[in-house]
Amino acid sequence: MGKTLYVLSSGELKRKENTIIIEGSEGRKFIPVETTDEMLIFGEVDLNKRFLEFCTANKVMLHFFNHYGYYQGTFYPREHMNSGAVILAQAKHCLDDYRRLLLAKKFVTGAIENMKKALQYYSRRGNIELDSIIEKLTAFSNYAKEQIGISELMGIEGNAR
Q: Residue 25 pLDDT > 80, yes or no?
C-alpha cells in the first residue's frame, strides 16, 4: 500500500521516466510513483494527457478539490472502475437491508469516534473542560451500535453532532 500525496501549492504535474514531478514556485519535487497510491490536489495545477496515461499505468488516483477545499471529482485509472464493479457492489449493499444497516453503523460510529478524538485532543491541550461532552459521544456511539433501523441511526448521528 502506497502513500497519499497532498498537493497544496500551485504548479505543474509532470512525468519524467518513472517519477512524478511537481514543479512550482518553490522549485521541483520528485516523487517516486511506486510509493504513491493517490494524490489529493488542492492547488491550481497544470497536467497533460501524458501524465494521466502515466497515472493510469501506475494506478494512481487523482482527487481534485476547489479553492475552498470542497471535493470536485476524481480521476480513476481504468482498472479501478472496471465495468462499474464498485458501483454494482455498492448497489448490492444498498439493496440488502442488513448490509446497509451494518455499513451505516460503521460510518456513524466512525464519525462519532473521530469527533471524540478531536475533543480529546483539545481537552489535553487547553483549559477547556470537555469530559462531559466526550462521555455523551461515547453514549451516542453505543446507542448507534444498538439501532435496528436507518432512520433511528440517522437520529443518533444528528444528536451526536
A: yes
pLDDT (average), residues 88-111: 89
Identify the DSSP state of 149.
S
Query: 3-81 in CATH: which number?
Result: 3.100.10.20
Compute the distance between CA of residue 65 and CA of residue 91 in angstroms, rounded to an integer: 26
Report whether pLDDT(6) > 60: yes
Could you give the angle at which helices 97-125 and 85-95 cross, rounded to 10 degrees? 100
Instruction: Report domain extents, the chain.
Output: 3-81, 96-160
pLDDT value for 160: 92
Edge-first strand listing for the sheet containing 19-24: 27-32, 19-24, 11-16, 45-46
Q: What is the pLDDT of residues 90-101, one digit of tens each?
A: 888 888 889 889
- Helix H or strand E segment including 79: none
**Cα–Cα distance for residue pair 43/7, rounded to 1 Å:** 6
Burial (Cβ within 10 Å: 0-12, 13-18, ≥19) of residue 89:
exposed
- Residue 47, phi then psi, degrees to nearest 5: -150, 165
